[in-house]
């Protein structure tokens, strides 16, 4: 499973990230953290093994392969 998280940080202003884990909650990992503040709207394309998301702060759509490459 994949989910987004962001928090207000007094030092870094805001920190956004996409995390992933197995469906039982184990093997939790931070998947994407750089150049994002308010990630949301996750969509998986299983045919191309691609994860898409919107960033409401930067007002754009991004993608990354599920193996973490080609962002």
TrEMBL record:
The source organism is Neotoma lepida (Desert woodrat)
Q: Name the InterPro entries on file.
A: 6-blade_b-propeller_TolB-like, Cueball_EGF_LRP_Nidogen, LDLR_classB_rpt
Gene3D superfamilies tied to this protein:
TolB, C-terminal domain (2.120.10.30)
Repeat (LDL-receptor class B) positions are: 1-48, 49-71
Q: Which PROSITE patterns match?
A: LDLRB
Q: What is this protein called?
A: Uncharacterized protein
């Amino acid at each position: 499973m994949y989910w987004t998280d962001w928090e207000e940080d007094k030092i870094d202003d805001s920190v956004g990230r996409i995390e992933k884990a197995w469906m039982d909650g184990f093997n939790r990992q931070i998947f994407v953290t750089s150049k994002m503040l308010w990630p949301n709207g996750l969509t998986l394309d299983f045919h191309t093994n691609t994860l898409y998301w919107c960033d409401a702060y930067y007002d754009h759509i991004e993608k990354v392969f599920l193996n973490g490459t080609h962002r």
